[in-house]
Amino acid sequence: MKEIKVPIIPNAGTRLSIGRWFKRSGDPVTVHEPLVEIDTDNVTHEIRAPVTGVLSKIFLRDDATVEPGTLLCTITVIKCDRAVSPPASSIAGVIAAYECFEPDILRLVRDPGTTLCNAQHPGARRPPR
Description:
The chain is elongated, with a radius of gyration of 18 Å. It has 2 domains: 2-77, CATH 2.40.50.100; 80-114, no CATH class. It has helices spanning 91-96, 103-110; strands at residues 2-5, 16-21, 28-29, 34-39, 44-48, 53-58, 65-66, 71-77. With 129 residues, it is mainly β. A hairpin with a 4-residue loop joins strand 4 and strand 5. The strands form 2 sheets. A 4-stranded antiparallel beta sheet has the order 1-8-6-3.
């Protein structure tokens, strides 16, 4: 479990607050993906995911006043080991075997009614006939 805290923001002024969350609890996240905005007197600062995993819990709502070191959220880290062969019948196991994967793929795996054959992704290209 990785804890995400409000960083020390140089020249931030005296007022720090949560701007908006880009993700919800239970959403998959990848490294460097924006999680939340921190608003200061001078600028809006994005807090990005330091690890790949699932956003486990959000501790503060939008517009909450915060200070450096305040716990924002936790991420359940997904550790991948290419040396371990996942069961062929497990799509989640196959995906977990890779270090980097897209959040859209994780959503496919989480939804039991969706398969790779019937998934609709706006960026997907249809195979040639």
